[in-house]
Specification:
Strand content: 25-35%
Mean pLDDT: 85
Largest sheet: 6 strands, antiparallel
Radius of gyration: 41 Å
Number of strands: 25
Distance between the termini: 94 Å
Strand order of the largest sheet: 3-2-1-6-5-4
Helix content: 25-40%
Structural class: alpha+beta
Length: 620
């Protein structure tokens, strides 16, 4: 039965009692605010009749004694409106009984009666019996509502937990959680997270989307009562307090909860309300949500700290800078696997030798974590020490192999090296070695990609590496690319390997880019292949003879480039896009021209940091 049907039957039954002309009903809050009103007379049942709430409020100020009929003259002094209503229905007095209802409120039931034909004792008994029914029904409804509220809150907590557990990007996750509680449980909300000993706002929500930015602005500026808590000068309380926000924000009260995890304060969660907070926003709920959010924040913070530590350690295992070698351009890139929080074993390096040779190397230690890290450090230190003293690459690899076997190191590693020696006409002679590693690739002027023929065994497994080197000539404009196997093993959505077909195509398409951008293109996996493992890439371009490398006024650049090309006996001239790059510039430009008679690279870089770079490759 609906509440309306219940009231119809109840009030209709009371109207049929002898001497009853009208029935009054009302519900009051714990603060005696009139929440519900009903009036029934010969014209029917009227809910929230105009002015009735004010009439009852006047009577509540001086409530008559229960079970006593108040004559109209006395009633008129207490509540003129009720006296007029009773008189209009034909009654000459009001019998009223107040009673307690659920949630600390009160109920009122009254009968407008006539003195002749009514039995006060009978009517009082009947009214008391009706009140028992009303109270029982009210408690049943309240219990059902409480159960439904608890179920809704538990469901919200469960959904919030799932969202917070599903992502380690805690800022985005907390924004989503706030969207769940606003407007379901609050009119506004905010989350602050401790970062470097300061509470920083990471999310805010408002039931009025137009005021959300305003709320966030005032929170950041400290224009609210919670600023002492954020600043650490006070603690958050349990109950709702004045929010202290400007009137235009439209949020009058707030409830704050400290986010604590593993004995540390990690943040604050604040609910805002337009007025008195809704009943469902209980201290228990706030603490439950706060504890779950705190754990999620702490987990994400620990994860980010671990990632930072791992990235920092990884960087220390790689060279801070690559050497500058006239005629050669180097670039390296490293992709850290996104599925693990342990340092990987991939590394690269470039070593100058006393006789003018340069050795580039890329290695890959089996496994991850501390043991792999230790072996990576050992391998780099051993190889670079021997190479820097002028030892040939096979000798350095042999020393490392014997040391690993002698020390009983159970892990193995693979390494590829390329020793570059300058030729007499701008070319470089390259001797490559592979100790169980993917062979280096050479990218020729026309875009053809060739794999080095070098071969050899894993380091740290066999007494002899059985190295079989390969020697190639690297002409100006050509590239040498060394990489670890994580690159060629990258897969697309269909399970295809990057190294099977797409890697050579990517090298061909990107060969004219600056070498650093070409390395980035390789690690991007052609936009289709997910590089999901540690990958080290080292690329070397032979620039040939450097004919120009100077900072010049913009108006002198094109002439200097033409002179440099003539010095290389190259028949080309600066293309139109370089002329457009120079045109109208007032700042100086660094101009570089290098190559030979058949290939040349022109690169212009504005000295202004925001000026950009333009380049071109010219072939005869």
């Amino acid at each position: 039965m609906s509440t309306r049907q219940f009231a119809d039957e109840l009030y209709s039954g009371l109207l049929e009692l002898p001497g009853v002309r009208a029935v009054l009903g009302g519900r009051l809050s714990p603060a005696d605010e009139v929440l519900v009103t009903r009036w029934a007379d010969a014209t029917g049942l009227h809910s929230a009749a105009a002015g009735l709430a004010a009439d009852i409020a006047d009577l509540v100020v001086d409530l008559p004694e229960d079970g006593v009929v108040v004559p109209l003259p006395l009633l008129a002094r207490r509540s003129p409106g009720l006296a007029a209503r009773a008189a209009a229905s034909g009654g000459d007095g009001l019998l009223l009984i107040a009673f307690d209802v659920a949630e600390g409120g009160r109920g009122l039931l009254g009968l407008a009666t006539v003195a002749d034909g009514s039995d006060t004792e009978l009517l009082t008994t009947a009214l008391s019996q009706v009140i028992e029914v009303v109270v029982a029904a009210d408690h049943r409804i309240s219990e059902q509502r409480t159960l439904e509220d608890l179920q809704a809150v538990d469901a919200l907590l469960a959904e919030a937990s799932l969202r917070m557990d599903a992502s380690l990007d805690i800022a985005d996750t907390l924004r989503a959680v706030l969207r769940m509680v606003v407007p379901a449980l609050a009119d506004g909300a905010a989350v602050h997270i401790r970062r470097e000993e300061r509470m920083v706002q990471v999310a805010a929500a408002h039931v009025d989307a137009r005021r959300e930015a305003l709320l966030a602005e005032h929170l950041r500026a400290g224009h609210w009562a919670g600023e002492p808590v954020i600043a650490g000068a006070a603690r958050a309380g349990d109950g709702p307090v004045a929010a202290g926000l400007p009137v235009e924000v439209g949020l009058a009260t707030m409830t704050m909860g400290v986010l604590r995890a593993r004995g540390r304060d990690v943040g604050l969660l604040t609910f805002f309300h337009r007025g008195t907070p809704a009943k469902r926003v209980t201290t228990r709920f706030l603490h439950d949500l706060a504890s779950r959010a705190a754990l999620a924040i702490d987990n994400a913070t620990l994860y980010e700290q671990r990632r930072h530590d791992v990235a920092s350690l990884q960087q220390h295992l790689l060279p801070a800078v690559l050497p500058t070698v006239p005629g050669l351009e180097f670039a390296a890139g490293y992709n850290a696997a996104d599925h693990a929080l342990e340092v990987g074993g991939d590394f690269y390096g470039v070593v100058d030798q006393p006789d003018g040779a340069v050795v580039a190397l890329v290695g890959d230690v089996c496994g991850r974590g501390a043991p792999a890290t230790a072996l990576t450090g050992l391998a780099r230190h051993t190889l670079e020490t021997v190479l820097a003293e002028g030892g040939p690459a096979p000798h350095a690899l042999g020393i490392l192999n014997r040391k690993m076997l002698r020390d009983g190191i159970t892990r193995f590693l693979t390494i590829a090296t390329a020793t570059l020696r300058p030729g007499s006409r701008g070319e470089w002679w390259v001797e490559t070695q592979s100790a169980g590693h993917p062979a280096p690739l050479l990218v020729r002027r026309g875009g053809t990609v060739v794999e080095s023929r070098c071969r050899g065994r894993l380091v740290g497994v066999f007494a002899e590496l059985d190295l079989r080197p390969a020697t190639d000539r690297l002409l100006p404009g050509e590239l040498l690319v060394l990489f670890s196997d994580g690159l060629i093993e990258a897969r697309d959505a269909d399970g295809g390997f990057y190294g099977d077909t797409e890697l050579p195509l990517t090298l061909t398409r990107s060969r004219e880019l600056p070498v650093a951008e070409m390395v980035e293109a390789l690690l991007a996996g052609a936009g289709r292949y997910h590089v999901n493992d540690d990958v080290a890439v080292l690329a070397v371009r032979n620039l040939g003879v450097t004919a120009l490398d100077r900072v010049l006024p913009a108006h002198e650049v094109l002439g200097a480039v033409e002179n440099a090309l003539r010095e290389l006996t190259h028949p080309g001239c600066p293309p139109d896009h370089l002329a457009r790059f120079v045109a109208g510039r007032s700042t100086d430009i660094r101009a570089k021209v290098a190559g030979d008679a058949e290939w040349a690279r022109v690169e212009l870089t504005a000295v202004d940091p925001n000026g950009g770079t333009a380049w071109t490759e010219l072939t005869a």
